[in-house]
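Notes to self after the call with IL:
- keep both proteins in one doc
- input above output, always
- annotate only the second one for now

Protein 1:
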Amino acid sequence: MKKDFGDSISNKVYEYRVLARMSQQELAEKVGVSKQTIFVMEKGNYVPTLLLAFRIADFFNVDVNDIFTYMKGNDQNEN
């Protein structure tokens, strides 16, 4: 059975995209994904692969940690 640690990833893709005055479609084309992928990522319903996270950060010329933030959860089942 897969253990749920409660970890999550938040992102600032929307903020960076809006500051760059880009549509979701334009960003999607630049990083090689669908507009739907950008949409669900901005809503927090999709955690990108590590490769995609780096592509997005590289596109905006920032460190991946500037856009994506790892939030460690608590393991409730720990003995």
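Protein 2 (the one to annotate):
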Amino acid sequence: MPIARPPVPTPARPRESTLTTLTAFAALPMSVTDEEGNFSPPGIGEFFPIPFTVGGEPVFDRIMLVRLIAMAAVVLVMVLYVQRARLVPSRYSSTVEFGLDLVRTQVAEQILGQKDGRRFLPLLATFFFLIFALNITGIVPLLNIGGTSVIGVPLLLAAISYLTFIVVGIRAQGVGGYFQSNLFPPGVPKPLYLLVTPIEFASTFLIRPFSLTIRLLANLIAGHLLLVLCFKSTQYFLEELLSGNALGAMFVLTLVGGFAFTLFEILVAVLQAYIFTLLTAVYISGALHPEH
């Protein structure tokens, strides 16, 4: 006579969300709970998505795809702007020209002067528009993560800025003159160079690229986590409300908070692009004119 075996319990599955709009908007997984039914907050895994594979080999992931889309968007915007350039600009051309004038007048010419400002305007404008495009993808539906939220791109942009002002300084002052002006500032008593020189070296050649990278990276990481937390909480509370839990009414607060942080992220996207571009111009100006 066969022995009856007890049924094997089926592990609990996370509840499937029916709120596909919020899921798409915040790039959330289909479930906001773990296997035990508890709320699952966002974590660092948000920035390491499952890569796309070709022939079983990882090729790129969603963040790399977002970066390619942002770069293609910048190129397309500029190509269309050049093709549609007219004596009387259209609304589209006026919008692009507003960004270019902002970089030209408020950064390049104001920091570097008219001559050097025009010389470095292409680099500074590229920084501004590319960083803005990579930042703003954090709130674009179906993209929903900043292209600068993983260290690769911020580090590359900081390295370009870093090498630019060093090369510019060497060309303007010579190798010896450039490093002497940065490491041994005039007017300092010679014994104090034992203290001043290491500080100047760390400030100019170590802290500058580090701060450019971390400032851009940390703001986008924090912004993404806040948005995911708000909209994920909204999903969770709304599902609780639909299940009869009055506490779920708190979804109103998290939803409002999510949209508030979305507006704030737009400001951050512009501000971080502007600050990175501005600091690059300041560093180039210091390399060209050490007496300032």
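Annotation: The chain has one domain: 58-288. The two ends are 97 Å apart (CA to CA).
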